[in-house]
Amino acid sequence: MDMLQFPANIAAAAGVNFAAIMPEVILSVIAMALLLVNVFINSEQKAYLGYLSLIGIVVTFFSVVSGWGAPQSGFNNSVLQDNFSLFFKGTFLVSAFLTILITDQYLKREECNWGEIYPLILFATVGMMLMASGTDLMTIFLGLEVLSVSLYVLAGFNRANLKSNEAGLKYFLLGAFSTGFLLYGMALIYGSTGTTRVAAIASYISQNGMVLSNPMLVAGMLLMAVGFSFKIAAAPFHMWTPDVYEGAPTPMTAFMSVGPKAAGFAAFLRVFIVALPAMKADWSELLWVLAVLTMTVGNITALKQTNIKRMLAYSSIAHAGYVLVGFTAGNAVGTAGVLFYMLSYAFMNIGAFAIIVLVGRKGEENNNVSDYAGFGFKHPVLGMCMSIFLFSLAGIPPAAGFIGKFYLFSGAIQAGYVWLAIIGVLNSAASVYYYLRVMVFMYMKDPTEEFDWLAVSPSLALCLLLSVAGVLIPGIVPGTLLDLAQKAILM
Amino acid sequence: MLSLHSYLILSAILFSIGAIGVLIRRNAIVIFMCVELMLNSVNLTFIAFSKYLGNMDGQIFVFFVMTVAAAEAAVGLALMIAFYKNRESIDVEDLNLMKW
Known about the structure:
The complex is a heterodimer of chains A (491) and B (100).
Chain A: H1 22-40, H2 46-67, E1 72-74, E2 79-81, H3 83-110, H4 117-133, H5 137-155, H6 162-193, H7 198-207, H8 215-232, H9 240-247, H10 250-275, H11 280-303, H12 308-329, H13 332-359, H14 375-378, H15 380-394, H16 400-414, H17 418-444, H18 458-476, H19 479-490
Helix pairs in contact in A: 1-2, 1-4, 2-3, 3-4, 3-10, 3-13, 3-18, 3-19, 4-5, 4-10, 5-6, 5-10, 6-8, 6-9, 7-10, 8-10, 9-10, 9-12, 10-12, 10-13, 11-12, 11-17, 12-13, 12-16, 12-17, 13-15, 13-16, 13-18, 13-19, 15-17, 15-18, 16-17, 16-18
Chain B: H1 4-24, H2 28-53, H3 57-87
Helix pairs in contact in B: 1-2, 2-3
């Protein structure tokens, strides 16, 4: 099985090659320009920064699309823009786009309308893109840190709000702690193989089989797995997730639960599949345990949550578990399933968070599940959107979440992990309970208090429209997207 | 002449002191200093390997780690100040608004 191999049709570029980092360059230039513009405009005009960053994201997206099928390598092979990284870059840009659409209304309501949030989102996206195209441990580390440092600020963005402070500080302390483990793992792998290039690590190991019994290499692999598991919020390294997701500003929670998770998976896949294929027997056993723990802990804890943001935090842990099932399988179907799932997860999760943004009031976020009583009758269209997102999260056809789960689990079955797939399906069945409980409140309970008229801003309506389309279209006709995901890993 | 092993053992000890410090100390700034200790022990590992292997990659990595640690310090201290302004404390026991 040749996945994520260095494309044969390009020469290994020795020097600088800006074509390999074109999307990153475009997006960082735009983000820096926005930081400058932000100084010169008053607080009523901050929304324009949002529109400008949306334009920037669209331009970057075109650059990503035009790079498809024409892999570029540069900077002494420390970045490789292949279809795999381009697919992930598309996912990151989609999640940043949808997030910015719901940010404006939230910031105005919470009276923290500071323009820095848009450049920060763009910088975080640049970090994610570097993680996906990094083929050197150094590039991956730098991408991860550009992402993390921006996210620490975004989590604590509402600086007058105690919960937001607490979320930012908790995320920072635990994130920096986990970075230490990741780095130590990288150092040990560098020490035992003498290189930081992922492809060179693999060729060193295949030429010197002795190194496989070197405890330093094994410890390095384990420490890196710990570091990445923290980023994707896999149990038992998930303890920060519910607190940070609950405290952070809601649009940032939506962003954090989608983009960085996908970026973590991109780097995790690249390092383990390309650099350490010789240790596959070891790491797939480790991932098996992680996947089962993550799914079970996430789902069981989500069952008793009453706060909807916290419930979606645990649900995002459970979703990381489903994706780990596909990763554990390590075959083409499972890995393509990971790519497909992360993209459709971006649509369904940000869509659900858009509704949560809408229901909130200044200072009173209305995050309790019981606040949704009667919501479906009062606002039929919004209620229907929320139902579609929840159905997709629960994995009920014809939503994209079902197709994604189907591919993840069938990858596991093809690779011989039948029990893993069974545990995954059982978990998925248990998760229906807490998703449908929200719908029971929406459609079967009388409202406890009078709903105000909800002001849906045009950008938020666009976000909902795109999310519904992104959930339903790949759910009903998944062929094109699955084809792209297959091409992304086999090229 | 010290061998590679002495450096690796020293950095492993420093890393463990840092990790244990993060887990048992309660002051956010001390925890952050322990994290910095962990990062610096990793730097020591990189340099020891780099010297031993006669390969510059490790030393370049160290420069990046130091840069990133500085950026992290700026953001982290800013977050601590924001928290201190609202709570008048930087004890992690006071990070208790959200539980389970």
